[in-house]
C-alpha cells in the first residue's frame, strides 16, 4: 500500500533538519542599517559571550553556559553590531597561542578582541580562591612573564584580530599604595620591554585612583601604550578621567564599561542578582552613553580605532547596551 501511495501521490516531504549547535538570532533590518552607519573604526562588543539569557538577543535558542563558552562565538560575531568581544578567562590562567587562534578563526574580518593579561602579572598579591590576598606576588608587572605568557601567544594566535591587550592592574595593597613611585617604575619597565604590536594596542587599566597622575600620563606617552578608560565605581567618573585621554591624543580609544556606579565599588554581586538573565536594560545610563558616544565619534572621526567592551553589569544587558550606544553614536538614540 505504501508503494502504491508513493506512486500515486509522491513521497511525503521529510521535515527540515533542525540546525545543529548554537545559531544566531537573524539580524533585524534596523540593526543592519544601524551597523552600516557606524564607522569601520568603531568596535563595540561585550565583555564575554557565554550568557544563556541572551536568547532572542544574540542566540536563536536556549543553550547552556558551557556550550556557549565553547561554541557560541561564531553566532555572537554574526550579529551586525557586535564587532568586538573581551577574552577574560586568560586572567585566571595564561592562554596558549592555539587558544587565541581558535577564537580568531571563528570571527569575520573587522572583528577585534580585547584581552586581559593574566593576574599572574597584574595582581600585586597571590590570592586565594575567594579573592583574598595571601602574600606578595613576586611576578607583579614582570616584563619577561608578561611577554612570554601574554603578549607573544596573543599576538601569534589572534593576528589581525588583536584590538587591545589590556594590563588591568588589580587594587593595590596598602603597602604598595604608600610607595607609588615604585609601582610607576615597575609599570614603566614592563611597557618599555614590550615590542611594538603589528596590530592593535597595549593598554593599561587601573583600579586605584592613585595611579591617575601625570606620572602615568608620562610613562604611557613614553612607551606608546594607551590608557584604558575604566568605567567602574572604584575610579573617578568618566569626565574626570578625560584629561588623561586628552594628554595622550592622538591614539586609539580603549574602553571597558564594567559596572554601573549606583552599585558602588564592590557591587558586582548585587548587580548580578538584580539583573538576573541579563536580557533587559534595568538601570539605563543614557548620560554615560552620550558621553562615550561623543568621545567615540571624535576618536573615529580622526581615523583612530575605538575598542569598547561593555559588561552586563553596566546597565543590565550588554547586547542591549551595545545597541543603545550605537544609536547614541549615530544620533538615533532613544531616551534611556
Would you identify the regions where 5 or more consecutive residues have pLDDT less than 50?
Answer: 1-9
Termini, distance in Å?
65 Å
CATH topology: TIM Barrel
Radius of gyration: 22 Å
Q: CATH class, anyone?
A: Alpha Beta
Whole-number total of structural domains: 1
**The CATH superfamily title:** Protein of unknown function UPF0759
| SSE pattern, N- to C-terminal | HHEHHEHEHEEHEHHEHEHEHHEHH
Structural class: alpha/beta
State mean pLDDT (0 to 100 scale). 92
CATH architectural arrangement? Alpha-Beta Barrel
- Helix content range of the residues, please? 40-55%
User: How much strand?
Assistant: 15-25%
Largest sheet composition: 8 strands, parallel, barrel
Shape: globular
Number of strands: 10
Number of helices: 15
Strand order of the largest sheet: 1-2-3-6-7-8-9-10
Region (Disordered): 1-29
Protein name: DUF72 domain-containing protein
Summarize the structure in words:
The structure is a single chain. The chain is an alpha/beta fold and 336 residues long. The protein has an eight-stranded parallel beta barrel with strand order 1-2-3-6-7-8-9-10, surrounded by five helices. Strands 4-5 form a two-stranded antiparallel ribbon. It has helices spanning 2-9, 29-37, 65-71, 73-77, 97-104, 119-122, 143-158, 174-177, 180-193, 214-223, 238-247, 268-275, 286-301, 312-315, 318-330; strands at 42-46, 84-87, 112-116, 125-127, 133-136, 162-169, 201-206, 226-231, 253-257, 306-310.
